[in-house]
Amino acid sequence: GAVVSQHPSRVICKSGTSVKIECRSLDFQATTMFWYRQFPKQSLMLMATSNEGSKATYEQGVEKDKFLINHASLTLSTLTVTSAHPEDSSFYICSAGTGWDGETQYFGPGTRLLVL
Amino acid sequence: KQEVTQIPAALSVPEGENLVLNCSFTDSAIYNLQWFRQDPGKGLTSLLLIQSSQREQTSGRLNASLDKSSGRSTLYIAASQPGDSATYLCAVKPTSGTYKYIFGTGTRLKVLA
Predict the structure, then answer these.
(1) What is the pLDDT of residue A20?
(2) Integer Cα distance of A55 and A72 in angstroms
(3) Are B1 and B16 in contact (CB under 8 A)?
(4) Which residues of A touch B107 (CB under 8 A)?
(5) B98 and A91 in contact by Cβ < 8 A?
(6) Ramachandran class of B79: left when φ > 0, alpha when ψ lies in -120 to 50, beta otherwise
(7) Quick one: which of A46, A31, A59, A58 has its CA closest to B101?
(8) Mean pLDDT lowest for which of A78-92, B9-23, B40-54, B56-70?
(9) What residues of chain A lie within 8 A of the CB of B4, using their CB?
(10) Is the pLDDT of residue B98 over 70?
(11) Which of B43, B99, B102 minimises the CB distance to A108?
(12) Which in A4, A83, B71, B95 has the greatest CB count within 10 A?
């Protein structure tokens, strides 16, 4: 079956530093990747959608200069949280989509970010 | 704007009970609906995916139904076990816009031994 990995699974960093999270589709090519964020006891909220080789589309209220998304290949997308602050502490989950416009999606295991 | 609601928010049952989790959505224009399981601090495990043209899907002790016209889906768990304890999320994929999922807030299930 289709497998999506995320690295790291957990990261703790100091306020003001930048953190990069990788999302990889291991055995398939993903035309579209989606990045979600989940705060404690809340549901997943889509942050942005990215297609390989093009700029990401951000959801309303998500700062594109703070959450940098790179989708350089069909198997790798990265999310960089720049100048992280404690309020950015959250669970970040990616999904990799295949088919036209990413219609079939497979979710990664998530990355827990804690900013001190 | 599509909104997804799950009731109840939390549920605690003794082992062996059959139970029903509810999901409702406000816009029936969906591509599919998917039920996920999330263990604490973990990612999502897809349980069942129902296409908009389907009425139900079954996998083992799980059965999910979809009534698109009324904007409802139910997840039925038969003979619950302590290992079923987790948060169950339902998500819909609208037909308009990008193929993003809109998630409900989840039902936290605890099955007592």
Answers:
(1) 97
(2) 10
(3) no
(4) none
(5) no
(6) left
(7) A46
(8) B40-54
(9) 43
(10) no
(11) B43
(12) A4
